[in-house]
Design brief:
The complex is a heterodimer. Chain A is mainly α. By secondary structure, chain B is α/β, with parallel strands linked by helices. In chain B, 36% of the residues lie in helices and 28% in strands. In chain B, the strands form three sheets. A six-stranded mixed beta sheet of chain B has the order 5-6-7-3-8-9, with helices on both faces. Chain B has a four-stranded antiparallel beta sheet with strand order 11-12-10-13, with helices on one face. Classes of the chains: A mainly alpha, B alpha/beta. At the A-B interface, helix 1, helix 5 and helix 12 of A face helix 3, strand 5 and helix 4 of B.
């Protein structure tokens, strides 16, 4: 294979090989990915039990379904790029990437895809296992199930673009962790990781509609669980596409400015 | 000059470096108003490299060598002046430019740490879009020249520094670059490995007619590979010409080594005594005095053996920088 497809094929092979060198790390990472939603699930189950079996229309089974699907979607859309860029800039591995006749984002996309190919089946198995414990209420709607696949794919693209753009902050500051922290807090609340957005006050939901976070995680979850009308689903897709367009522009601008900065101050 | 592979004209790089004085008050002041100082890392240098030339790029630490190489390979934007490599402006980082050059840095990691080097090579094959046959040929050649056979399948992290460096060099040359920038390619390697890598680059230059610009702290590297040297100091060009001419111009002294029975009491009259061990005397004499001193030594002393040498190139270079500093 030649061209970009060949680059992806080789990069993914390389990523697989590197990942399999660290099987223990992979398992630990998976556990951390599982723990978060399970903790929220347990909290909400307890709250539901204490308030007579229902919170804002959500039963224990609904919460179980919500957090287990969220766990899967979060795993698929997750990227670790924001933690890595500072290292790349500081250690000069970025210089090596800049000398290659291919945009460095491709290596990251390929790396992400290959890691998801390994982690998604594992997460699916974990979700099924946890399903036996937490007994989710599932009522699948065929069209929503079909729409879920592109919604997750778009969510992945969107989250990746936004996080890759933010990661480039490392070009300007050596203290990216403050920025990362702010982003993760916003993500935690506005992407539905703490609780379904439907349980938040109206103004938070309105903010959620306008920002990209919901479309990166919560939207596919709500869609799969049949919580959305076809009209709401269409709005969701439109928002995803619009934010991806914005993300593409941002990533280009930030990359250009970042490289200019990098090559001005000393690569 | 349109025939130059590398053309550099009045190339300048100025870094802005934040500075503040020690102490709390200065720290607070710097919050409001940053004081920056301009550091001229490269200060208006000009030179041309012809196709196939191997040129040594010398200077002490901080002279601006690495900055220049980074500008020539597109990693740094020049502040002023002009650089073209193979007709391209490096800072634009066009793909056709990147496919034809390489920059090897002593500490650079382009190999993936956890997997065998051969897998990283395969990745480069894809990245540089090398036809399978060309890739196999080059890989075969590099494997032979650098003796990589037993190394290719071991994870990179299990290789020694020298082994890793050889693999890094191979990875950097798989696409057969026409222009090779080498920044301290033999740093940290033992003498045998240094010699091997030198021989390799000489061979690479012959086989592919590649243009090579090399910085090194080891003068042996330069002596073995380069007829021409460019010397820079504090960002400015000090010398550009034949290595022999450099020695001629900057070595004001010669070294006379005399083998005697024992170390005599008084030798000061002949020149500066550098050392005397078991009758082996090393004298430093002004170049103009060489023949007279030699004659006197032979006449006055029971000389067993006598040789006249140019001082080591390190010493000459040191002198160049010392003169400049005065």
């Amino acid at each position: 294979m030649t061209g970009l497809a060949g680059v992806y094929q080789q990069q993914m092979k390389t990523s697989f090989a590197a990942m399999l060198q660290y099987r223990a790390a992979l398992v630990i990472w998976l556990i951390s990915q599982v723990l978060d939603p399970v903790i929220y699930l347990i909290v909400w189950s307890t709250v539901t039990a204490a308030s007579g079996g229902e919170v804002g229309g959500y039963t224990r089974g609904d919460f179980a379904a919500y957090f287990l699907v969220l766990m899967l979607v979060n795993n698929i859309t997750y990227s670790w790029i924001m933690h890595e860029y500072e290292y790349r800039v500081r250690e000069g591995t970025l210089s090596a990437a800049l000398l290659r006749p291919v945009h460095p984002i491709h290596a990251d996309i390929a790396d992400n895809l290959s890691s998801k190919m390994i982690s998604t089946p594992m997460m699916l198995a974990v979700a099924v296992g946890l399903g036996f414990v937490f007994r989710p209420t599932v009522h699948l709607v065929p069209w929503a199930l079909a729409a879920f696949v592109p919604a997750v794919a778009l969510a992945f693209v969107l989250r990746f673009l936004i996080e890759w753009t933010l990661a480039l902050a490392a070009f300007w500051t050596t203290r990216v962790s403050a920025l990362n922290q702010t982003y993760y807090v916003a993500l935690l609340f506005l992407s539905g990781q703490v609780a379904p957005l439907a349980l938040f006050p109206g103004f938070v939901q309105a903010i959620g509609l306008a920002l990209p976070f919901r479309w990166m995680i919560s939207f596919p979850v709500e869609l799969l669980l049949g919580n959305l009308t076809p009209a709401q689903a269409l709005i969701g897709f439109a928002a995803q596409v619009a934010w991806i367009a914005i993300g593409l522009v941002l990533v280009r601008l930030a990359w250009r400015a970042g490289v200019r900065q990098y090559s001005a101050v000393g690569a | 000059m349109t025939t130059s592979t590398v053309h550099v004209h009045e190339l300048t790089k100025v870094y802005k470096v934040a500075e503040r004085e020690a102490g709390m008050a200065a720290a607070l002041r710097s919050l409001v108003r940053r004081k920056t100082e301009d550091v001229r890392a490269v200060d208006g240098i000009s030179f041309d490299l012809a196709p196939g030339e191997v040129v040594g790029f010398l200077g002490p630490n901080g002279a601006g060598k690495t900055t220049t190489l980074k500008m020539l390979s597109g990693l740094l934007h020049p502040t002023a002046g002009e650089a073209t490599v193979l007709g391209f402006t490096p800072a634009r980082r066009e793909r056709d430019f990147l496919r034809q050059i390489t920059l090897v840095m002593g500490q650079r990691n382009q190999l993936v740490w956890d997997i065998p080097a051969i897998d990283s090579f395969e990745l480069n094959r894809a990245v540089y879009r090398l036809p399978a046959a060309d890739y196999q040929d080059t890989l075969h050649e590099l494997t032979e020249l650098l003796d990589l056979g037993p190394l290719l399948k071991k994870p990179v992290r299990n290789l020694s520094l020298g082994e890793r460096m050889k693999c890094e060099i191979a990875a950097a040359l798989l696409h057969r670059p026409q222009v090779v920038f080498l920044d301290e390619p033999t740093i940290g390697l033992d003498v045998t490995m240094q010699r091997r890598i030198r021989a390799f680059f000489a061979d690479y230059n012959r086989r592919f007619g590649a243009t090579i610009l090399l910085t090194s702290h080891y003068m042996n590297d330069v002596e073995a590979l380069c007829r021409r040297v460019i010397v820079i100091h504090e960002g400015k060009l000090l010398f550009d010409g034949d290595l022999a001419a450099l020695l001629q111009r900057f070595s004001s002294h010669k070294t006379i080594v005399v083998q005697l029975e024992t170390c005599p009491e008084k030798l000061d009259g002949y020149g500066e005594v550098v050392s005397c061990e078991d009758g082996l005397v090393t004298l430093r004499v002004p170049k103009a005095e060489t023949s007279r001193t030699t004659a006197r030594l032979l006449a006055d002393l029971p000389v067993i053996d006598l040789t006249v040498e140019d001082p080591p190139i390190e010493e000459v270079i040191e002198r160049v920088f010392a003169q400049e500093a005065e």
